[in-house]
Specification:
- Strands 3-2-1-4-5-6 form a six-stranded mixed beta sheet, with helices on both faces.
- It has one domain: Rossmann fold (3-Layer(aba) Sandwich), CATH 3.40.50.
- The longest helix is centred in the first third of the chain and has 15 residues.
- Helices cover about 40% and strands about 15% of the residues.
- Helix 8 packs parallel to helix 9.
- Bound molecules: S-adenosylmethionine.
- The site of S-adenosylmethionine has 23 residues, from helix 6, strand 2 and helix 9.
- S-adenosylmethionine (SAM) binds next to helix 6, strand 2 and helix 9.
């Protein structure tokens, strides 16, 4: 067995042992709180970071995600802990308890986190594709009452260059769709079919609303909804969309609150 396929032995600091032993192992309130605690505490108070750094799939995926793009910027602005948690979801959960469907990303910028997930999926989740959605021309209109960003924030990205780079590193499981979520998801999602993980990283209220509402009918039972932004100080608009739609309207409870928000689709 290659090192990349060895099981992880997640160890936590001893003060957590009693609490963990009494946690329910069955999903409750639509989320698997045991897994959420294990990943979050494993990253904050345990050895998941060390396990990632010792895992050749993680280290290569991270190297590709952090590679310098032609504009001199790293391909991803997503921080290492958030990437590690995406990896932990794939390694500890999706590879052991598969959920039908593919991975979608809403907000790709220079493609880094999509590249990270595609490399990890290629090794951990055979047959799973990653489809990234973005204007590739910066933010569309933002909500002046809730968002701090203005239209056009984030750079325009050379999508031809990004596609060439993705092909050059052999990621034939990754593709991109250009346009606003409102304009593209209605036609793209029926072709994708089911979704097992949605990484929502679009920073603003309207983007989160569109991504969640348009993807919801395609989420497999138990699918992961990972929100990169709502706990970031510049993204209260993104959090407001989560509060309104997932928390208040749909009554969902978070599976994980560190390093980013994770919910599960209950139906
Ligand atoms: C923080 S960046 C994404 C970062 C990226 N995941 C990475 O690895 O660095 C946010 C992106 O969301 C995109 N975005 C926001 N709202 C959108 C919408 N409604 N439709 C399409 N793209 C949108 C922006 O164009 C921008 O590139």
């Amino acid at each position: 067995m290659s090192a990349s396929n060895t099981e992880w032995d997640v160890q936590l600091q001893s003060f957590l042992n009693d609490g963990f032993s009494r946690l329910p192992r069955e999903p409750q309130k639509g989320r698997d709180i045991y897994s959420g605690y294990l990943r979050g505490c494993g990253l904050r108070f345990g050895n998941i970071g060390a396990l990632c750094l010792a895992d050749p799939v993680f280290t290569k995926a991270f190297e590709l995600a952090r590679a310098t793009a032609p504009d001199g910027q790293p391909r991803t602005v997503v921080n290492e802990l958030n990437l590690a948690n995406l990896f932990a979801i794939m390694k500890l959960n999706l590879s052991r308890q598969p959920i039908p469907g593919h991975i979608v990303e809403y907000g790709c910028l220079r493609g880094g986190s999509a590249i990270f997930m595609a490399y990890a999926a290629k090794h951990l989740l055979p047959g799973v594709r990653v489809i990234g959605f973005d204007t590739f021309a910066g933010l569309p209109d933002t909500n002046p009452n809730t968002d701090v960003y203005d239209r056009g924030a984030f750079d325009t990205v050379d999508l031809d260059e990004l596609r060439s780079y993705v092909a050059s590193i052999g990621l034939d499981n990754l593709s991109f769709v250009k346009g606003t979520f409102d304009a593209t998801l209605g036609t793209a999602l029926p072709g994708i079919g089911q979704v097992c993980l949605a990484h929502i990283d679009c920073d603003i209220y309207d983007g989160v609303v569109s991504a969640y509402e348009l993807t919801k009918p395609y989420l497999s039972p138990g699918a992961y909804l990972v929100f990169d932004d709502p706990l970031v100080p510049t993204c209260i608009g993104a959090f407001e969309a989560v509060e309104e739609l997932l928390v208040r309207r749909d009554g969902l409870h978070a599976e994980q609150i560190f390093p980013h928000l994770v919910y599960r689709h209950p139906d």
